[in-house]
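Subject: two folds for Thursday's group meeting

Dear M.,

Sorry for the delay on this. The cluster queue was jammed most of the week, so I only got both jobs back this morning. I'm pasting them in the order they finished. Each block is the input sequence followed by the predicted structure tokens. Could you check whether the formatting survives your parser before we put anything on slides? The first protein is the one we discussed after the seminar.
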Amino acid sequence: MLKGKTGSSVLSNAREAGRQAAAQAKQGLDKIKIAFVYASCDYDLKAMLEGIEETMPGIPVVGNTSYTGVITPEGYIHGDDGFVGIMALEDDAMTVGAACRKKGACAREDGRIAARQAMEAAGRTDPPDYFYMAASPGEEEFYLKGITEVIGRVPFFGGSCADNTITGGWQLYSGAEVFPDGVVVVFFYSEKPVANYFTGAYRETKDMGIVTKMEGHRTIAEIDGVPALKKYAQWRGMDPESLKGGALLAGTVVSPLGVKDRLGDLTAIRHPMNGNDDYTINVGNKVAEGTAVIRMEATVDELVSSVEEGVRKLTQKAPAPLGALHLVHCGGRRAGIGDRIQEVYAGMKSAAGDLPFIAEFTFGEYGYEDDGNNTCGGLMLSFTGFAK
């Protein structure tokens, strides 16, 4: 039977915080297979990981820094001096292999290398049943492409590392390795199913257009032949000058852009991140020229309520009773929710019931819907359940 247990700490000493959270997470577990760890970028992360290793020796530890806090069944965990949350999983029927790769010259090749290393760590030569990925913001789709080239299409979940100030202070970690840019993967081999509910939980508007010019992979230059920022401002009845710079990031949490998958099963959210002086828009994920983008909408009330709804839909979607939940919640949504984060916790707890869970706040979310086509997005929820 799969069992999960969580632990947390807000101690100012990172090593002691790691020890305290790990001691809580290991209680009642005898053969832990993996520990997900999400922490503050303000910590000495190497010291924190040393504290975890002292308490959970030999256990694969993976994760990244999370925006402002984490959520466990105990509540919203945050602190002025730092925070850490851990969820440990054990299951005699599960085999895992964890690996990491610091960013090199090619993200796609980094993904291929990490995939081969994860199989080796698991003592396997075959593709996993599902996998977890964490990466630095910027090239998530290319790490995924590299992994897929090695193992084929296998369901995945995870998110991108984040910091508290959106200034690039994020970190990834696997074992004792800590680094700002690259990829972390965990391959899971299990006959028990995993379920993922992946959504932006936004409503479509009638405002849509074709991306007629891109600069690189993540800068939309024109929509319908019009400078992208001007087109977006026109849709919302706003002055494009008011959306320049970082103002666009905050102003689009309640109204981002969406792109439909080829069957219309999923609308992946593209978060406009920066309004440039030339009226181009930097977005948080890859966009292709010729793609239709749709302006999406949600109120703050809907951002809050969508979390409880999402957990309930995950449990309904799961093909078997669940034993633990891994919840990825966008950091941008977290910022838009603001002081109402306690309502988010209450909704998570109500929907999860007695199930152990951990929620991190990320700068990119990964998941799949229906036909299993793995997708990276932003301003999204990726909720995963492990069968008992």
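Second protein, same layout:
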Amino acid sequence: MIPFLSFEYQHKAIRDEAMQVFQQFFDSQYYVLGPQTTKFEEKYSQLSQVKHCIGISNGLDALQIALRVLGVGPGDEVIVPSNTYIASALAVSYVGAKPVFVEPRTDTYNLSPEELEDAITQQTKAIMPVHLYGQACEMDAIMDMSKKFGLAVVEDNAQAHLAEWNGKVTGSFGDLNATSFYPSKNLGALGEAGAITTDNDDLAHACKVMRNYGSQKRYYNEVKGFNARIDELQAGLLMVKMKYLASWTAERQMLAKLYTEMLQDVGDLILPVTATGASHVYHLFVVRTDHRDKLQEFLSEHGIGTIIHYPISPHLQNAYADLGHKKGDFPIAEMLAETSLSLPLYPGLTEEKVGIVIDTIKQYFTENG
């Protein structure tokens, strides 16, 4: 059996340190916004090459707070990729604004800068590039577009910790940038957690106030805020995991290289492409094939787990029926939803097991043309 994802290897590596963190957390009697949060925010801001990190309860809250602090609200529009996970669009909806979907490139699956300008209207307030599957978006072109039209940029960096565009890490370009540390992420907590990153002192302060009931002094509330603070225990555990992130990322990249080399010219498979100037940290290794559903079933029958990211594009979800979109409105996103399959890839997955996945995929196409 080869699961799609396993934490066994990572947990074994950090177990002793994680137990120490829990004991310190338990004994410290600092459970919310304590010393672990402060240390985590300092460390993650350094990792992200920015001045500020604000620990948040989860990635969706981080996106929503970033948009609110930037003044996005009812009557505004925010551009998001048509093939993103629905959380990106939900954050826009939660602040009362309208998500405007823009198609990605067919090779990298990231937001196409060339498509941006046609989507910009008088109501557009912000652009939300999503570094999908772990590959950095073309941030220079996106930032140029934002400056041309006076738009804010909020990076959704949930899948791309340590990815770079022209040598600069994701999560350091936008006015405010949000990330998730959901357990399956490249840098994952052992529960829910997220963060906002920025170089702007005033925006950082506003985010800290917004996450804490709109208050910087207890019982004195400046704005209508949220209870959206990172958990002190999760902050401590993320500090432990950050020490391993670079080596775990290198392992992901090595396994992705093996997949790429050995799956060339197999059936009708379309393999991941990395844009010139971008790096890819392979949160997911996504292949495309017109045989997607049958291939997934075949792999499952041979004990290999896979997942579809994502089977329904946001514009076709019932949650967004009010926008009036129909099938065919965003054909690239729909094509990706119908043909994409994520293969097993995680730290601790052995080359031998990757070889089994590769051989089983080859067997399917040998038997099925």
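Two things I noticed about the second structure. Residues 5 and 184 are 8 Å apart (CA to CA). The two ends are 25 Å apart (CA to CA).

Cheers,
T.
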